[in-house]
Amino acid sequence: MAISLKTTSGKILASVALVGTAAAVAGMGTYGAFTSSTSASQAVTAGTVTIALGAPGPANTLNVPIAGLLPGDKVEKLVTLANTGNSDLNNVTLTTSAGATGSLLTTDATNGLQLTIENCSVAWTGTAAPYNCTGTKTTVLASAPVITANKALTNLTSVTSAKTDNLKVTTAFPTTANNDFQGATSTIAFSFTGTQRTETTK
Predict the structure, then answer these.
(1) Given a cut of 50, is residue 14 above it in pLDDT?
(2) Neighbour order of strands in the sheet with 114-120
(3) What are 56-108's pLDDT values in tens digits?
(4) In the 3-class helix/strand/coil scheme, how is 19-36 assigned residue by residue?
(5) Residues 37, 15: Cα–Cα separation, whole Å
(6) Cα–Cα distance, 138 to 181 (Å, whole number)
(7) Residue 28 — pLDDT band, cuts 50, 70, 90?
(8) Distance CA 195, CA 121 (A)
(9) Are the CB atoms for 113 and 98 separated by under 8 Å?
(10) CB neighbours of residue 43 within 10 Å
């Protein structure tokens, strides 16, 4: 009986050892599979939307004061508008304001100052007003009251990146202005805003 128990015990131990060896072999098979990998990188840079007026001087006379204006007078100012960013634009709008300096010149939409903007395909000629366009002249803003908000401008080449427009800004004082306008004064601020082109899939 003693010999039989030892023999049985030996078989059990041998079986356990065999199972353990099989598990070890199975584990080696799980972690020994072939693999392959690859990778790539992509650089992404945002575009720039930037417009700029010419520096004060011949390329920008908007900041030169106007004095002694009488009904029927017109004042012409020259300014360049450039797209200095690397993106095209959907449009450019103009907002003008007089703020606390508002007077009949800017608040009377009929008899007050009227604004017109024209574009020339080449630089305007002349050392003083009236200035002439020897290239192609187009209307950017038809005559309208001098105070405007988010007014879309037309016929601008500066909606294209790296392009520049040669603008003539004309301020007219209607002949219908009466004595109430005498001595009136205002400071008009011009703000041009460029909006990015329509989004696209690249």
Answers:
(1) no
(2) 51-53, 74-83, 164-172, 114-120, 137-145
(3) 998 899 999 999 999 999 999 999 999 999 999 999 999 999 999 999 999 99
(4) HHHHHHHHHHHHCCCCCC
(5) 42
(6) 32
(7) low
(8) 22
(9) no
(10) 4
What tokens does 99 get? 């703020």
The count of residues in the chain is 202
Count the Cβ atoms, other than its own, within 10 Å of residue 94: 20
Average pLDDT, the chain: 88
pLDDT surpasses 90 at 5: no
Do 51 and 194 contact (CB within 8 A), yes or no?
A: yes
Amino acid at 175: T
Q: Contact at 8 Å (CB) between 172 and 62?
A: no
**pTM (two decimals):** 0.81
Between the two ends of the chain, the Cα-to-Cα distance in Å is 87
- Taking a C-beta distance cutoff of 8 angstroms, is the pair 79, 53 a contact? yes
SS3 41: coil
**What's the CA gap between 108 and 102, in Å, rounded?**
10
Distance CA 59, CA 76 (A): 13
